[in-house]
Structure formats: structure tokens, C-alpha cells
Design a protein that fits this description.
With 263 residues, the protein is α+β, with helices and mostly antiparallel strands. It has 6 helices and 7 strands. The strands form 2 sheets. The chain has a 4-stranded antiparallel sheet with strand order 4-3-6-7, with no helix packed on it. A 3-stranded antiparallel sheet has the order 1-2-5, with no helix packed on it. The longest helix is centred in the first third of the chain and has 25 residues.
Length: 263
């Protein structure tokens, strides 16, 4: 792809985006890389391959890049969903990267003029084939609408929507805190409910008649971990720690109950 700087830059950018998606676990970094690969780079490479010997206005090239990116994303997601491996982060990233690199290579070859003739002079003569920034009102409106649609689609895709028929649940667990030398137990509460839920937690250590009680509220996806100190017995026997969780919105029997033993 010598002398085709836009194709080289597209290929390098696609490789960097794919590496970020697969390696870096920070969502704030992975999401922009995924949007760049899914919504522009793959479509730009396909546009360059399909219209290799035509000179396109930059507005038309941008619209085609967005349209072909969305079309490729939909078709590739469907094919991967029907495949044995399913739609996974690694599979769709690798597929889009492969399509981008293959399209860039095809575009570079198609831009070369035919041997023994002048060919159709387009992007091959000028590198990128982009003209000056002459924008008509219609082109500007179309580009604005395309960017708005892409932004709305990205926001909707990343926003969890409520499911009215879904049944939520709450996890309650208790484990001895061995890493801090024993003598305590960690009790965790994780909410996967559909709405903000208020709880009352009662913890009974050994044979105490009056349990330790605390109230808390968790939003969906939140987790709270409490550490309870346990006084060791002189004879070295284990101490039982029981935790009972109640939902304040539904008074009645316990919602969750766990037990742990601290030596």
C-alpha cells in the first residue's frame, strides 16, 4: 500500500483499535476504540475499495463510510450469532479488522492504473482523492443527520433498558477474612434487582440473643461488603456467624440467609 497514506493510516488505526478492545479492560477507553472501528474505519476501507477509481467529495465519502460500516456491523453480527462460536468480543473484533485490512489491500490494488494505459485517474493520482472542503447545504444536512443517527444508535446500544417481565435477585454471601489473620468475617450483598431496593441485614455472632442490625439501599448492580469482628473462644472452637437479609418493601419471611464459621 505504498503511496496510499489514507489506506495505511486506516489499517494502522484499525489494528490499534482492535488491540485496545481486546487488551485494555477500561470501558472508557474501549468504547471509543470500538466506535471508531465499527462506525468508520471498516466503512472507509470498503468505500475506498468499491470506489477506488472515482474521486469522491469528502462529504460523500463520509456518508458512504458510515453507511457501509453500519451495514457491515449488522451483517457480521448476524453471521457470528449463527456461527458455532457465537457473537463474542474477540470474534467480531477480529472479523471487522480482517474486513478492514482486506478492503484496504483491494483498494490499493484497484487504484493502480492499468498497464499500458492511463486508466481512470482518481484517488491513485493524488493519494487520498479528497477534494477541497466545498460543502453544499444538502451535504451538510445529510452529514449532520448521519452523525446524529450514529450517536443515538451508540447511546441506545450502551444504555441498559428496563425489562418489565424480568425477575431480579440479590446475592448474599459470607466468608472468613483469612487474609487479615482471622477473627472476622466478610458479608457481601450484591443487588441484581430491577430498581433501587432497601434491605435490613441482621448478623448474629455465636449465641448472642440480640443480632447486629443495619439498614442499607442498593441500586441495580451495586454491592456492599461489611466486615464483622468475631471474638475467638478460649477453647479454640469455631464461632458460627449467621446473616439474615430482609427486604423492607416486602415485610415477612427472610429474603436471604447464610452462615459461616470462624475458627
Amino acid at each position: 500500500m505504498r503511496n496510499h497514506r489514507d489506506l495505511v493510516a486506516t489499517s494502522i488505526a484499525a489494528g490499534i483499535c482492535a488491540a485496545i478492545i481486546l487488551v485494555i479492560p477500561v470501558e472508557g477507553v474501549r468504547i471509543p476504540a470500538a466506535l471508531g472501528l465499527c462506525l468508520f474505519l471498516v466503512g472507509y476501507a470498503l468505500t475506498a475499495a468499491i470506489f477506488a477509481r472515482l474521486t469522491l467529495e469528502w462529504t460523500h465519502r463520509l456518508l458512504l463510510s458510515l453507511a457501509l460500516s453500519l451495514a457491515t456491523l449488522v451483517i457480521s453480527s448476524l453471521l457470528l450469532h449463527l456461527s458455532p462460536g457465537g457473537l463474542q468480543t474477540g470474534s467480531w473484533t477480529g472479523l471487522l479488522l480482517g474486513i478492514t485490512l482486506a478492503a484496504a489491500l483491494i483498494a490499493a490494488r484497484r487504484r493502480e492504473p492499468a498497464a499500458g494505459g492511463t486508466g481512470l485517474r482518481g484517488p491513485a493520482a493524488g493519494g487520498t482523492g479528497l477534494r477541497g472542503p466545498r460543502v453544499s447545504p444538502i451535504d451538510a444536512a445529510l452529514v449532520t443527520c448521519a452523525l446524529a443517527i450514529a450517536a443515538v444508535a451508540a447511546v441506545i446500544a450502551l444504555t441498559p433498558l428496563p425489562a418489565q417481565d424480568a425477575v431480579g435477585y440479590t446475592r448474599l454471601w459470607a466468608l472468613p477474612a483469612e487474609e487479615v489473620g482471622g477473627g472476622s468475617v466478610r458479608i457481601g450483598i450484591a443487588s441484581a434487582e430491577q430498581d433501587l431496593t432497601a434491605y435490613r441485614l441482621e448478623v448474629r455472632v455465636g449465641g448472642e440473643e440480640r443480632p447486629l442490625s443495619s439498614s442499607l439501599a442498593l441500586a441495580p448492580g451495586q454491592e456492599r461488603v461489611l466486615e464483622i469482628s468475631v471474638e475467638r473462644r478460649s477453647n479454640g472452637s469455631a464461632v458460627r456467624v449467621s446473616a439474615t437479609l430482609y427486604r423492607l418493601t416486602r415485610p415477612g419471611p427472610p429474603y436471604r440467609r447464610v452462615e459461616s464459621w470462624v475458627q
